[in-house]
Structures are given as structure tokens and as C-alpha cells.
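Model the whole thing, not chain by chain.
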Amino acid sequence: MVPIQMVDLKRQYNKIKPQVDAAMLEVLESAAFINGAPVQQFAQELGQYLGTRHVIPCANGTDALQIAMMALGFQPGDEVITPSFTFIATAEVIALLQLKPVFVDIDPKTYCIDPQAIEKAITPKTKAIVPVHLYGHSADMDSIMEIAEKHGLYVIEDNAQAIGSDYTTKNGITKKAGTFGHIGCTSFFPSKNLGCYGDGGALFTDDDALAAKIRMVANHGQSARYYHDEVGVNSRLDTLQAVVLRIKLQQLDSYIAARRKVAAAYDAAFAGSPYIITPYQAPNQVHVFHQYTLQVEGKDRNELQAYLAAKNVPAMIYYPVPGHRQKMFEGMTETNQHLPVTDTLTSKVISLPIHTEMDPEQLEHIIASIQSFLN
Ligand SMILES: *Cc1c(COP(=O)(O)O)cnc(C)c1O
């Protein structure tokens, strides 16, 4: 059996190797390493795929979030509401810009920000909500957009984990995750569902003026060549990464289908278990399973992880320390408050290997190992 990994990027590459190698060579020959034609071609193609007017590539997903908040002109002391149960980048950039991250709890089913908790956290200083579409399943965007409109807030979607996911609104309109708020942000980190071979990221928006502002911020605050209107950043997607992403974007729907197939096999295997809660999928969404994350009940999650490791089955805890318990935010916002759902889930969740190259025998071994631990 091929060794099991959380994500098997090598075997995925092998399947597209001729195309990728040729495209990479072409970039080397052209020497257009920065802002080569493929960067804009990719941006256009991703815009078409997502159904959004503007895609602005940048250097990574963390930069995308930072650039979004800079482009919206938030000022030090402004408050931004975000879930605590997420990767650190989401709240880190809020703090980096001297804004105040306001951590709220999540919905126990979706693992995403709880709209009711958002409403309770709004103050006169609140400027924005940053929902995170965790593990590949969107937050409740119908409710979030309603709350944002009611209170005049911006919505920046952290879509690093849910690219390609479909969401149908209560009015019956189906759109891609990340295209509901004012700005969507994503990451092309190699292990993400649409990953490149290094770092990369992008912002998307339908707002022409905001798109222009984002482009300016991402390019040294430059309005015309060598005229800099604001302090910005330097954040670009390399041409080499753009050619990889153009090829992989063609495969994204089949990559999602492959992940969903693995998820369905796990769902079926654990459906009857009293010790396991399988991931929830809202009926109006297509979960893209960036992670397949179980909740373990009545058994020790850490013991399960160790048991699996001994059977050469990797499993990860995303994330072992939630934002509101991270040292970095001490003195910047309320920390160590009790967020009951987040705190409980932190001790129960475990993510299993899921990727586009899983063999049936690998899947069987993972499932059998979990079952033998539980029995
Ligand atoms: C990966 C990720 C990011 C950051 O992306 P980078 O490209 O690594 O900077 C931000 N938010 C979430 C939820 C992520 O999963």
C-alpha cells in the first residue's frame, strides 16, 4: 500500500506532470517571472469559474485578508468580528492592522461562525464581519449578509478552505462560496483544494471601485506608475504559480468530486457509530471537504490520534488552540473567555486524510483502524 498522507500532492502532480512541466518551462524561457501573461489569464479564468467580476491575485491567503482590510480603509481601534475556531491568519491580520479582533462562537453543526453570536457582539465600533468557510463548508451567508446590511457592516469571506463550493440562498440563487460578501479571500497554499506549488492567494469582488482599490493596495499603493497615493504592500502571484493554477483550475471540479467520494465513504462507514459525529452538510450547500473532520464522543480523541499514528494513519487536530486562547492576542482583545461550542469542539475534533488520490485499500485501512479503536 502507498503510504497514507493527509494530502498526496506528489501523486496528484504525476497525473498533470506533462502539462505542468511544459508550462513551467515556457515561463522559464520567457523569463516573465513577475506579472507574466498567465497571471491575468488565470485571474480571468478564476473569475469566470467563480462568477465574479474581479479576481486580484496576490502572494498568499494571509495577504489577501490583510489587503482586503486595508482596501476598506479600517482604522486602528475598529472592531472586526470573526470566529475563534479557525486558522490563526484570519485574526492575526486584524490585530496586525491594529484593529480589534472580536472572537465569537460557532455553530456546532457547521463549525462556522454563529450568526446569533455576531449580532450580540456588534458595537458602534464594529466595521466588519469575517466569516470563515471552515473545512470546505460555508457559513450561513443568508443570515450573515442580512445582519451586515442591517448594521451597515462589511463582509470579508475567508474562503481559503471552500473554493468551488456551491451555496444556494434562500431566494434560490446558487453562487460560489466567497462571492456573497464585499470581498472574498482565498489561498493557493499547496495543500488547499486549489493549491499551487509555492505560495499564492487572491481576492475577489464584484465592486469595480473596490477592485481598483485592492489592486492599488497590493501594488505599493500606486495609482499611476511611480505615483503612490497610500501606504500599501507588495503582494503578487508569481507567473510560475499562475501556470500551475491555470492547469489545476481545469481539474478543480474533478478534485472536488474525488474528495466528496472519500467523504461519502467515511460517512457510510461511521454512520451508525455512537462515538462519532460525521460532518454536517447543509442541504443548500455542496461541501468541498478541504478537511473531513469528525467529532469523537465518549472516547478520547487524542488516544484515537495516537492509535492511528501507530497504524501509519496520519490524523490532525485543526485547530488545537482557538484564537481566543492564543497568547498573541492578550491585551488586544478579550481572551480566555468561555466560548462553549469552540472550547468543546477543540477537544473533540479530528481530521482524517482526504485528498484527490486516495486508493480504495488506503481508505479501507483508515476506516478499519478507526473501527478497531472504537470497538
Ligand atoms: C490557509 C488559510 C489561510 C492563509 O493562507 P496562506 O496562503 O497560508 O497565507 C487563511 N485562512 C484560512 C482559513 C486558511 O485555511
